[in-house]
Amino acid sequence: RNGPAGLQEPPPHLVWSPPEPALVERWEHLQPMAEGAIGRLTLDLQPALPLRRLHLISSWAPFSRPVQGLYERPAEPGRDRELHQVFSLQWSCPDTLPLPCLETESLEGTDLERLLVEIDNGDNPPLPSLDVELWRRRHVLLFVWPATGPVTLHAGAELGPPRYDLETLRASLMERPRTPVALEAAEAPAAA
């Protein structure tokens, strides 16, 4: 559909964030770097993602360790590197074998590029390895089509902007049946 000045406009749609997040990255078999009793993991994250939660996973049990997550703000000219606490928790894993022990921490509302995870081993041996998962909010585009009948799209600058308010219709549109469609990346044309 063409809008004013011949610009291509997408069909009417809503952006919906379902409660189930999407996996962004999984690091397997990480070995925390030991500095005394503290084991440290440095996770370089994808910037500008709407992060939701962090999973720490260990198949080593039983154990109990204090854990904290620190945001590392890079050093700038005239200012040293700064660390800010993002979370602090007591990670306790009873004997859960053969299932791995999972600790989930919310990262909602944070905008991180690098996260340091510190595990205080105290007098205990360090955890041999961990898996870490980073999850983000998922966005789904819901395109609105009539429930029945053919779809007719009209083009032309004389039509003006569309006349609908999808936010007002959100509740009824969310109740309609949906057909999921996965989009695939288009292949680049072959060079001549």
Structural class: mainly beta
Q: Give unreliable regions as ranges.
A: 1-5
Helices, by number, come to 1
Helix content: under 10%
Query: Total number of β-strand segments?
Result: 11
Radius of gyration: 24 Å
Neighbour order of strands in the largest sheet = 3-4-9-6-7
Taking all residues together, what is the mean pLDDT?
78
Overall geometry comes to elongated
Query: N-to-C terminal Cα separation, in Å?
Result: 31 Å
For the largest beta-sheet, the strand count, sense and barrel status come to: 5 strands, antiparallel
Order of helices and strands: EEEEEEEEEEEH
Q: How much strand content do the residues show?
A: 35-45%
Short structural description:
This protein is mainly β and 192 residues long.
Can you give keywords for this protein?
192 residues; mainly beta; five-stranded antiparallel beta sheet; 1 helix
Can you characterise this structure?
The chain is mainly β. The chain has one helix at 166-175, and strands at residues 13-16, 22-30, 33-35, 38-44, 51-58, 63-73, 82-93, 101-106, 114-120, 130-136, 140-143. It has a 5-stranded antiparallel sheet, with no helix packed on it. It has a 4-stranded antiparallel sheet with strand order 2-10-5-8, with no helix packed on it. Mean pLDDT is 78; it is low at 1-5.
